[in-house]
Design a protein that fits this description.
10% strand, 2 domains, alpha/beta, five-stranded parallel beta sheet, 5 strands, 14 helices, 56% helix
Length: 287
């Protein structure tokens, strides 16, 4: 490709064609493609490149902290979890229906993993996604009142097709927090989908929200079209920690320093002291 053509393609923002044009020209010559076949080939390359770029941009904007997939999830560690239900949610049909999801379970049971995995499935299907903890969102909205950007910040949390609120219930909310949460949930109600993860059972959620009236309004809107997924298993993180912890087996190893310490217990010329030292060694080392 000559420099003049490259510059024109850059101005037209056809970076996908720039990347593959030389290779495709060689392929077209070898396979004796027609002009239309060659054109279709490079246009398809551009289309695929733009799709990848859009996907990467959506992933970056989602603020998803790490890459997780449903396929990576250890269902054998959570046998009460219905694999088919999770894979069904991974189709993102719930987003098309504007439904919500609540993942409830103890810390370390995979709630965040599954919420992220579903978020990535949504990104792959061209949906916009935003991941945040409830605490981060509350702090963001609270601070926005100081510079009069509150409405703009609310839009940040109401605009995405899928909002993932992690760690619901770790902290109790004050009146301002509850007001702000209501703004977000009310605007998303039957307009877009929300995923919440919580280590609190649903009947405890009302205690997290300061205002009983607003608590009822928030929960009523969220649960109206909601898929509740309860994970009853144990913490996977604790399992991994136990697996990495060394287990001490057998008798403790004799150390020269320990033996010397015992040898110094007896006083000079005291046979009783020597006998006591021997008995203490036998008790410690099992000799």
């Amino acid at each position: 490709m000559n420099d003049n053509l490259r510059e024109k393609l850059k101005k037209l923002m056809l970076s996908g064609i720039i990347k593959t044009a030389d290779m495709r020209a060689g392929q077209a010559a070898r396979e004796q493609m027609s002009h239309m076949e060659f054109l279709e080939l490079i246009v398809n390359d551009e289309h695929l490149n733009r799709g990848r770029n859009r996907r990467n941009d959506r992933l970056k904007r989602s603020r998803i902290p790490q890459h997780k997939t449903i396929e990576e999830f250890n269902f054998s560690w959570q046998p009460t979890l219905n694999r088919q239900v999770i894979y069904g949610l991974g189709t993102c049909e719930f987003i098309r229906k504007r439904e919500n999801i609540a993942f409830i379970g103890l810390p370390g049971t995979g709630k965040t993993h599954l919420s992220i995995a579903i978020g990535i499935k949504a990104i792959d299907q061209d949906y916009t996604v935003l991941f945040t903890t409830l605490s981060e969102m509350m702090d963001d909205l609270y601070m926005s009142r100081a510079d009069n950007s509150f409405r703009q910040k609310v839009k940040k949390y109401t605009a995405p097709d899928l909002l993932i609120l992690d760690e619901f219930g770790l902290k109790k909310l004050n009146q301002t927090n509850v007001d702000d949460l209501y703004e977000v949930i009310a605007k998303r109600y039957e307009a877009s989908s929300t995923v919440i993860t919580s280590n609190k059972q649903f009947d405890e959620w009302g205690n997290i929200l300061f205002d009983p009236v607003l608590a009822t309004a928030i929960l009523d809107r969220f649960v109206h079209h909601c898929n509740f997924i309860t994970i009853d298993g144990l913490s996977y993180r604790m399992k991994e920690r136990e697996g990495l912890s060394p287990k001490r087996r057998g008798r403790p190893r004799k150390e020269d320093g320990d033996n010397k310490a015992f040898d110094n217990v007896a006083t000079d010329g005291d046979e009783t002291g020597n006998d006591n030292t021997r008995l203490e060694k036998e008790a410690l080392y099992g000799q």
